[in-house]
Design brief:
CATH topology: Glutaredoxin
Largest sheet: 5 strands, mixed
Number of helices: 4
Number of domains: 1
Low-confidence stretches: none
Order of helices and strands: EHEHEHEEH
Strand content: 25-35%
CATH architecture: 3-Layer(aba) Sandwich
Helix content: 25-40%
Mean pLDDT: 94
Number of strands: 5
Strand order of the largest sheet: 1-3-2-4-5
Structural class: alpha/beta
Distance between the termini: 28 Å
Length: 113
């Protein structure tokens, strides 16, 4: 499953065009938990096939990091049909992530940070 990189210059435009579910995650090369999450996505592409995955380098894209009030990495956010839906908080395990996405979808969309 291809991981798409987003920058402050294309973030909102590309997400607005993304149909279905999108998971945006903020990461950094020096973040061990981020590397673990990236390996999880790569090792289980079939489990996340219903999601478009987008990655933002939190260190390089400080404007987006501030906009989404990211203080800890990795930080995950769910979008539905290009619109912000909710933050995702889960252990870096397939079952936990999918359960957190399902739980978020069962609630009303939240206001974007």
């Amino acid at each position: 499953m291809p991981m798409q990189q987003l920058t402050q210059f294309d973030f909102h435009h590309r997400l607005a065009e993304a149909a279905g579910l999108s998971l945006v995650w903020f990461s950094a090369p020096a973040c061990g938990a981020c590397r673990q999450l990236k390996q999880l996505f790569a090792a289980h592409p079939e489990a996340f096939s219903q999601l478009q995955l987008f990655e933002v380098d939190a260190g390089q894209e400080m404007a987006l990091t501030r906009e989404f009030e990211v203080f800890h990495l990795p930080a995950l956010f769910l979008f539905r049909d290009g619109h912000y839906h909710a933050p995702i908080h889960a252990e870096p395990r397939v079952e936990s992530l999918l359960a957190a996405v399902e739980a978020a979808l069962a609630t009303a969309p939240q206001e974007a940070p």
